[in-house]
Amino acid sequence: xxxxxSGNFGYTNPATQPYGVVYGTLxxxxxxxxNAPNTIVRPWLQDFHLGAQYTPAMxxxxxxxxxxxxxxxxxxxxxxxxxxxxxxxxxx
Length: 92
Prior knowledge:
About 30% of the residues lie in helices and about 5% in strands. The chain is built from two helices and two strands; from the N terminus they run αβαβ. The protein has helices spanning about 20-30, 55-70; strands at about 45, 75-80. The chain has a two-stranded parallel sheet. Strand 1 (about 45), helix 2 and strand 2 form a beta-alpha-beta unit. The termini are far apart. The mean pLDDT is about 90.
């Protein structure tokens, strides 16, 4: 969400709306790839401070958005320092 411009999905600061941005992006992606059934969409999710102070709850919101949007191909977290919010992850 940090790299989306003001106004995307109707948000002044998309970085503060992790669920809405990820859900909206995946929803648009499903429309774009509707005629390409073998396309795998695996989003990178933000886990670093840029545009907003990212909390484990914000990381979890992105993960939830991927599931709610019907994406069952997984996701990957991105942090340029490789420091991840472990508490945002569910234990098996």
